[in-house]
Amino acid sequence: MNRWVLDPGSNAHVCNTRQFGWSFVRKAKPGEVIYAGGQVVQIAEWGTVVLNVRTPSGKAPIKLTHVALVEGFFANVLGLSRCRPLGIHFDSGRDLLYQNNPSNVVAMLEYSNGHWLIDAEENDRPELTIVATANEAHQLWGHASKQAIDHLPESVTGFELVGDNKAPKWKDCDVCIQSKMTQQISRRTPEDTNTTPFYRVGIDLVQLLPQGEACYNGDKYAFHAICHSIKWHEVTTIPNRQKSTLVNVIKALIAKIQRQFEYTVVVFRIDSEPGYRELLYDVCKELGIKIEARAADTPAQNPNAERAGRVIVERGRALRISSGLPKELANELVITAAMLLNITPTESLDWETPYQRVFGRKPSVAHMAPIGCRAHVLDRKVKRGDKLESRTMIGYLVGYDSTNIFRIWIPSKGRVIRTRDVVFARQHLMKNDDEPEKLSEEAERLIEVLDIPTPQALIDIEDLLSPLQKQTYEENNSLTQNDRNDAETATEKDIQFELGNLDKEFDNSATPESTIRAVGEINTKTTCQTDTRTTLQAVIGMVWSGLV
């Protein structure tokens, strides 16, 4: 939850992310923890936060000091008890905070879903900023080049590069070596003569997994397109290479370029991939688009698309290796790789991003988190009355649909969901996430400690009865020896006879009229006693005396 909740029961301020105007003061010491329900959570850092709040005179900033940073905590909490020494008090009737005098209002609160929110609306908040070292940015951008990382601060917004260290070169990074290693061939590729965005678009079809395997949703291929002049990437994942599938993808690509980017495709440059070369001729002929096809087995005639396809795969591979995500998410990772490439400074664009060339403004990256980091997702299906059940599901970030809509892989459900209500634990990647094992060890410890009574240790109902109740219990449950013998000699025929008479007994059951009459009697005669007649050692009901 990316809002600040006023908590009258908390004696500390708690922040769940460094993005929210976080200012570091000191590292937390071992033993400095937050107690939340039945959980004990170690505090990572102490710092300060500046919030924009609503006041009678408009928006104004307030500074919170001694704030505990607990990444992944579900909400940001303002502890009311820390405000008391400053003379700040809470008025729940007027939904506000005041200082000393009730007329001196310092913050107007927003009451929402049973909580008082102190921070201003999202549109009124200051823009968030990612603060990262060069190594962290290298990972965040899917192991981009050293030069690209160095140019990030002037190429994007919502990002601050800190520290003196430089991003590693690809030969100094294990993940880069594993994902980018190939034949070391140097060749210069010809430049396109026309620099108009999307004038010439290269197309390639990439197989994501080995033959016979598929992604979690059945996808097997990535349809990849690149604008040669501005290096903009578009990726769509598909389950097959059938004609109907490819036609829909191509038409959707052309429509997106025309309507969202307001450019026109003039040339499609393709290879000789069987299945869509002839298909493209038919589609493009209708749309008036020229086809440039290379000869078979001559990738040099379509170098940009071939190389760009390799870059997409390399970036997706780096994301998977560094995060530890399963290969069945290859379709999600290549789409995310394309998005990251579109916001990465590019040397051929004078270290601007393809995004800036398309939209005329720098991209905002304040929403980004490391791919594969743990995500605490709001579970909207928890029953409202289940107060002690966790309100979140554990998942892992695999991509973005927008700056506030994230794609989260939920392993327990085997699918990817789109959500806005999520908090990221940025330091916990899936490959390093040992939470399930820790939870298992904790469960085993609790099982050993808890003294669970066996059936033989259950309390006898007679121990809870008064002397008079015990006498009544014994009289009602006593059987003579003859009664016991008669019961033991009951035949199956007798039992069947009794069962056969059940329908007759139901005919004599209570009617609505008799029930109303009985309730009327109960309202006037309320003497009752406990009915303890049972062989199960439990009270089974009440018997009302004095009723006709």
From TrEMBL:
GO terms for biological process: DNA integration; DNA recombination; proteolysis; transposition. It holds the Pfam family SH3_retrovirus. Residues 193-362 form the Integrase catalytic domain. SUPFAM superfamilies: Ribonuclease H-like (SSF53098). One of its GO terms (cellular component) is nucleus. Keywords: ATP-binding, DNA integration, DNA recombination, DNA-binding, DNA-directed DNA polymerase, Endonuclease, Hydrolase, Magnesium, Metal-binding, Nuclease, Nucleotide-binding, Nucleotidyltransferase, Protease, RNA-binding, RNA-directed DNA polymerase, Transferase, Transposition, Viral release from host cell, Virion maturation. One of its GO terms (molecular function) is RNA binding. InterPro entries: Integrase_cat-core, PolX-like_BBD, Retrotran_Ty1/copia-like, RNaseH-like_sf, RNaseH_sf, SH3_retrovirus. It catalyses: DNA(n) + a 2'-deoxyribonucleoside 5'-triphosphate = DNA(n+1) + diphosphate. The aspartyl protease (PR) mediates the proteolytic cleavages of the Gag and Gag-Pol polyproteins after assembly of the VLP. This is Integrase catalytic domain-containing protein. It comes from Pyrenophora tritici-repentis. The lineage of its organism: Eukaryota, Fungi, Dikarya, Ascomycota, Pezizomycotina.
